[in-house]
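Hey Z.,

So I finally got round to the nicotinamide-adenine-dinucleotide thing we talked about over coffee. Here's the setup:
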Amino acid sequence: MLIALLPGDGIGPEVIAEAKRVLDALGLDGLSYEEALVGGAAYKAAGHPLPAATLDLAKRADAILFGAVGDPDCDALERHLRPEQAILGLRKELELFANLRPASLFPELADESALRPEIAKQIDMVIVRELNGDVYFGEKGMRETDGGKREGYDIMSYNEDEVCRIAHVGFKTAMARGKKLCSVDKANVLETSQLWRDVVIETAAEYPEVELTHMYVDNAAMQLVRNPGQFDVIVTGNLFGDILSDQASMCAGSIGLLPSAALDNGGKGLYEPIHGSAPDIAGQGKANPLATILSAAMMLRYSLDQADAAGRIEAAVAKALADGARSFDLGGSMTTSEMGDAVISALT
Ligand code: NAD
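And the result:
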């Protein structure tokens, strides 16, 4: 099995290095690795944030472990050359349409949540976000109004096939958990959302055991902080999911703790921490590598058929935290590699 390592920018290479050390420490047979540039690092070396060689590796690989992209030096580039375009390009080219973001709280970190501990302790959910459609991929541009004013526009759309395939992922994820699915939309004002809701209801006929509810996105944002324990699985579109999944993650603790997966229809996936390249702490050994280490665990489970190894990593992370391992974002002083060491020693 070939794993593509795409460290990217900022703290990306620092956290990927720790995830790779943890994977090596598992001593699994049959895994090989190839590394390639992506994001700002790729733009600086090869003139494009997603060079052909990187895309080729991503296509050949069985799974991709991704750090983060984003470099302040590149902020003034034309949009299609900015580092962030690499992740959008990979999602599109590889048809990675389903983003799974688990959000749950490690009990010993209840004080790190933005919520009161008694509310934070309820959080145990997965947000399933559609990744390949919606307003991010619609027609967009700048134009001039009749009155000579500048006007920006981005068209939101979903077709029924796109909604149907993500709805199936939502229902299947719910079947593997608490059998509750909440579909989040804005059907009171958006036609795109009305279609979304209709198709989710049609798809529900195939999953009679799953209790389906619907919620408008503004209410969902409120309920996530008011009563997060009501959610088991949330399925939603690209734009709403982008915002709600970051909100859920801060409720669950530090951004440095949460993994994610972006899956295609055939089991291939791109695995990455939910955080970005954190240029403010890059190169200082302050990055928490646990989100990336947990992303590697998701990779083993969803793409490499190694659920036992995934469970070993997750248990080691929980043990390291229970034993007091704390990086700077968790109020401690352990460096990125010391956090990696703590997980590795909890493995053995
Ligand atoms: P960010 O996630 O990089 O950082 C937000 C805050 O969280 C910062 O204070 C940072 O220091 C902290 N933080 C993030 N990860 C951490 C970790 N592992 N350990 C400890 N602290 C951590 O978000 P941002 O500052 O909005 O964006 C920075 C760059 O990253 C931008 O260029 C943005 O476009 C990019 N970005 C990339 C991705 C991606 O690669 N998928 C996702 C989000 C943002």
